[in-house]
Design a protein that fits this description.
The protein is an alpha/beta fold and about 300 residues long. The protein has a domain of about 190 residues: Rossmann fold. Helix content is about 45%, strand content about 15%. It is built from 10 helices and 11 strands. The strands form 3 sheets. The chain has a 6-stranded parallel β-sheet, sandwiched between helices. A 3-stranded mixed β-sheet has the order 10-7-11. Strands 6-8 form a two-stranded parallel sheet. Helix 5 links the parallel strand 4 and strand 5. Helix 1 crosses helix 7, helix 4 packs parallel to helix 5 and helix 8 crosses helix 10. The longest helix is centred in the N-terminal third of the chain and has 22 residues.
Amino acid sequence: MEVLVIGGSGQIGQELCRLLKSHQIHFQAPDRAQLDLEDHRTVVKLIEKWKPDVVVNTAGYRAAGNAQKEPSRCFSFNRDGVSNLADTCNKVGAALVQISSWRVFDGTKKEPYTEKDTPNPESVLGNSFWQGEQQIHQRCPRHVILRLSWIISHWGRNRATRLLDSFQDNGSPLPVFTSSHQRGCPTTAEDVARVLLAITQQIGCNSNCWGTYHYSAAEPTDEYTLAEVILAEASQYLDISKDALPEDNTERETVVNACLDSRSLRHTFGIMSRPWRSAVTRLVRNYFEQHKSSN
């Protein structure tokens, strides 16, 4: 089986490449200089040259704060680039595994979202993901779309690293406000890579499993509770005051729900959700080990 990983230098992509290597699955993982989703001709040329059995796209525009300011760039990645990718995969007979997001929903549902819930994105970013999904459905029948909740990692920019960076005593603390009105399922990039590997392996065994699925770690929580757990773990490495964790007390009428129901994925692929608390312990340890080695 030949696998092409797009976004191999990103948080999820690096973890997936590590797993593919350990399982001795042959793969290509070009960097963005070699394969840029916005460069449609190069995407077509390289995929036609490599002829992968499975293309796993972990790349995309995910900067929620910037998407409203540059919607054309956001759609260029998440809709137009994905549309071209889906066409090319279908042309060469490759299966497409695409990362999507909880942001295709409006966040108002009280229970975790299932695949049967109708998307209703309220942001530029969410809309770009949803339109990208629709393009895949129309252009590449052999696809798996994997929607994810909050993604965290020990490096890059995410909820965990923003907090951990703010705890560092560098003379210019950067407080990160967290809110109990934001609910989700913090899922590590390492855990997502495990899921992608299992999906890829089953596609390689000719499993007829096409469609859209949800995955998130077990045990929904709120943003402030996640921050408390991260602070407790980080306290083993730093002398941190409780004041380092300011809470956003802005009054809100509703909770923004990013929780996803993973039962369909479990029933189809046999992939179980793992708890996020033990994963956070490893994440924080890896964060400080990385910073120690870089100093």
